[in-house]
Fold this sequence. Notes:
Blueprint (H helix, E strand, L loop, with lengths): L5 H23 L5 H12 L5 H15 L5 E2 H6 L1 H5 L3 H11 L6 H9 L4 E3 L9 E4 L2 E4 H18 L3 E3 L1 H11 L11 H10 L3 E6 L5 H15 L3 E3 L15 E5 L2 H21 L5 H8 L3 E2 H5 L20 E4 L7 H10 L5 E6 L12 H5 L10 H11 L13 H4 L1 E4 L8 H10 L3 H9 L6 E4 L4 H10 L9 H9 L10 H15 L2 E5 L8 H14 L14 E4 L13 E6 L7 E7 L2 E6 L6 E3 L2 E3 H4 L4 E7 L10 H8 L2 E8 L3 H9 L8 H5 L2
Parallel strand pairs: 2-3, 6-11, 6-12, 8-9, 8-10, 10-11, 13-22, 14-20, 14-21, 21-22
Antiparallel strand pairs: 1-4, 3-4, 5-7, 15-16, 15-19, 16-17, 17-18
Amino acid sequence: MIKPGPAAAAAAQDQAAILLAQIDALTETGQLRRLSGAFARFVASLGHSSPPLMLACVLLSELEGRGHSCLLLSELASDPRALLGWSEEDWSGLRAAAGPLPKSAKAWSALLHTCDQVWPVNDLDFQQPLVLDGERLYLRRYWRDETTVAKAVRARAAAPRLVDVGRVRHWLDILFDHAPREGGPDWQKIACAVALRGNLAIITGGPGTGKTYTVARLLALLFATAGGTRVDVTNAAAVPAAGGLRIALAAPTGKAAARLKQSIDNALEDLALRVPDLQLPELAARMGAARTLHSLLGARPDTRSFAHHKGNPLDVDVLIVDEASMVHLEMMAVLLDALPDHARLILLGDKDQLASVEAGAVLGDLCHDAQAGNYDAATVGYVLEATGQDIPAGFQGASGALAQQTVMLRESRRFGGPIGQLALAVNAGDAARARAVLGADSGGKLAWIDPAQQSDVLQLALSGRAGAGGGYEGYLRLIKAGGADGGEPGGGEAHGAWVLAVLRCFEGFRILCAVREGEWGVTGLNEAIEQRLEAAGLLRRRGEWYVGRPVMVTRNDYGTGVFNGDIGLTLPDPARPGSLRVYFSEGASVRSVLATRLRQVETAFAMTVHKSQGSEFSHTVVVLPREGGAVLARELVYTGITRAREFFTLCTPAAAVLDLAIAQRTQRASGLRGLIGV
């Protein structure tokens, strides 16, 4: 590397000091994270650091906080200001303090090649904190995670299993209806056949397309054909007989895990009537409860490490992960590293939903071209033989191994009405169509409210709206009916049934926000809703904890067995008068924890759309803020809409914000697809 002379080095040091001062000023105003400035200083401490490199470090850190796994040099060269969504006024001070910047991606690459703190891939590796892979600049751990995921996905997608096609066809014809179909092939049936022939399958689709319905039939198919398939990989463990098939269910959150298990159990129970010889209830019982990914992998408190990894793999033959859009890059890398080579991995999720809060959009990257299909001749032939289904010519094409193991479910059985039409319009980026659907007569299914003030939303929180019901009044009155002191009908089965009824009533309605802060955010609305419900005599706040308080867990707590995203209700403890417990629903049962043992929780009358993923509510209210911003995007609105089962209400103080959100797509910088080779 060419080192600058003494004069040039001194000038660069002076310029770096000016840049750091500007970074500090922007940090104090809240425009930059403190972590970004600290990272730039850390990189500078490792050796000679030019101001452009320090600026790149700040941008890379800021983008990581917004979910990007890398910084594209082409975007860095063309318009760095746009990366942060800043105005020219906001950007000008930082830009001036950085001094002259490279004008092209090639020039940026040349500069980064001269920096001691950067490892250009395929060069000597000195464990530098920054990695340059082609025209992508990474924090080392995200490059490592992307590389791990890409390598595992390539290997799994290309790992063939020998399939007794005749046997598969026999069982698929039993498991699926024979009724003639209109509008195309049975993609659910195709998904089962495709999943059976490899170590990786991705099943994506919107709400109501039957992802868990399909997976229940896939499980039955695996159970029925376990003795007829084997792994075609040298030294890989053979798939055991049906009686020993080890199946695990998992999801990113406790709520999503509980819903997955309940849905699959219900589907297997229905299937058992059709195929009694398979003993499907035995399969359902042996699977056990669905678990969070953290619990499945054995997360260790206060560390980033897990009990399961390549040296201590998971003891599973089939792993099904629901709500895979919520799985961030690091978690997917850990999961794939811990999965034994012979095991099947089935990923379920809606590729159009919000990606994880943390860095990466793994499912979106893996399903990028799922809409097109791109099935090659071998897949088309196999599907026809195994299912009797013809893949239309429009979904055929030459593509890589990953596309051959990906199936998109295209027919929504639940979202054919107004809510489904609205979701489709938003997902297509058609703001005019979305407004038309919202304004049409939906029989009360949809409502678009332009609230003049916060009190309009508070009325919804109290008792819902005409034609849709909901609101929090219902569950709070159930609590009051449970006993004179706010609900204490004794212990035992009666108490358990009462708690479950209260939880189910609460889960029928929810207010979702796009942002956390401000009058129209989670913080402002939660406080206002508490005050409104107290004024109505429905609850009495006595400090932090009170009867009826809904809470969301914000951090995994292995001591109490609660996990980030779990939602519970605070109710009296029948065994300890005067004490409060927080009750969490687990399908048909409940579990509870003493309120005083829960440290990391927040009130959850209102919650972010991000945190609602994996949940559904009979009536969902989405509240947008007065102004747009980087957080408002099509995926956020779509995700909020698809949390509603029966009724949806949109509240936006400024109607133009809806158009802006629908027009803006979330684009996360990533090198995953390139590393996989798709």
